[in-house]
């Protein structure tokens, strides 16, 4: 199946699930996760109307941003684990960082965000399934970190992101997804401009939309399987 076919299929699915949940049909944005995929695949997605892309690896992501600099209106999301020695290139090239989980990284991104660019949009990553192997902060740490981020002028706190532990049963999936929804409402109540709840991947997209997700992150179902599975 072609990338453009896959994209329209997923967009249709998102709209149907929104309507089934009595949400506006444009309530959920599709982030195309393009890690490990060649520029030609991204260009195909762009030709089909896709504008928001997620990348996990700093070097690869920056190269793609540069190679596609001729295309207007693209939106680049960094969705991988970010080490402090790599913050500068991310601050210089991306529009969003979805995996913020430490004040030190936030401070570096704030300092390194070029003055001529709009503030960097950030999501706090929550380790919602409490997995020791996963990045993200505990739910109890959310407001503390959010208050510190809110004081940084070159960052714009837009919401939360999570990668829940995989579950095959939608009712099981919804336990973590509902916990995220409730954290998101808490965050929205305290901060202006919080509008993004990034959750839902290929296998839990429907449950995520039912639980208030505003952005689903989809890779394989758009671009096909990756040769080596990225983190
Ligand atoms: C790879 C990745 C995705 C997309 O995964 P697929 O299984 O290819 O749809 C979504 N979110 C994050 C954070 C990822 O690393």
Walk me through what this model shows.
This protein is α/β, with parallel strands linked by helices. The chain has nine helices and eight strands. It has an eight-stranded parallel β-sheet. Strand 4, helix 5 and strand 5 form a beta-alpha-beta unit. Helix 4 packs across helix 5 (103-112). It starts with a helix and ends in an 8-residue tail after the last helix. The structure holds pyridoxal-5'-phosphate. Pyridoxal-5'-phosphate is lined by residues 33, 35, 56, 79, 163, 201-202, 217-221, 230. The site of pyridoxal-5'-phosphate has 13 residues, from strand 8 and helix 9.
Q: Give the termini distance in whole angstroms.
A: 25 Å
Number of separate strands = 8
Helix tally equals: 9
- Average pLDDT for all residues: 96
Structural class category:
alpha/beta
Helix fraction bin: 40-55%
Low-confidence stretches: none
Percentage of residues in strands:
15-25%
Radius of gyration: 17 Å
> Can you summarize the main beta sheet?
8 strands, parallel
Largest beta sheet: what is the strand line-up? 7-6-5-4-3-2-1-8
Bound ligand species: pyridoxal-5'-phosphate
Overall body shape = globular
> SSE order in H/E notation?
HEHEHEHEHEHEHEHEH
Keywords:
single chain, 231 residues, alpha/beta, 9 helices, 8 strands, globular, binds pyridoxal-5'-phosphate
């Amino acid at each position: 199946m072609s990338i453009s076919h896959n994209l329209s299929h997923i967009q249709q699915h998102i709209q149907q699930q929104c309507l089934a949940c009595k949400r506006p049909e444009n309530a959920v944005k599709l982030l195309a996760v393009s890690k490990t995929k060649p520029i030609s695949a991204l260009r195909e997605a762009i030709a089909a109307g896709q504008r928001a892309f997620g990348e996990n690896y700093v070097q690869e992501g920056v190269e793609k941003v540069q190679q596609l600099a001729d295309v207007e209106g693209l939106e680049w999301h960094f969705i991988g684990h970010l080490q402090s020695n790599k913050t500068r290139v991310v601050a210089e090239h991306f529009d969003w960082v979805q995996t913020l989980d430490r004040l030190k990284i936030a401070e570096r991104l704030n300092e390194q965000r070029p003055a001529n660019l709009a503030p960097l949009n950030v999501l706090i990553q929550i380790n919602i399934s409490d997995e020791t192997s996963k990045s993200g902060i505990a739910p109890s740490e959310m407001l503390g970190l959010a208050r510190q981020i809110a004081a940084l002028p070159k960052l714009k706190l837009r919401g939360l992101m999570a990668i829940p532990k995989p579950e095959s049963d939608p009712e099981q999936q919804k336990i973590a997804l509902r916990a995220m929804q409730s954290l998101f409402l808490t965050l929205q109540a305290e901060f202006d401009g919080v509008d993004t709840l990034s959750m839902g991947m290929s296998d839990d997209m429907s449950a995520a939309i039912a639980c208030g997700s505003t952005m689903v992150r989809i890779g394989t179902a758009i671009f096909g399987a990756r040769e080596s599975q990225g983190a």
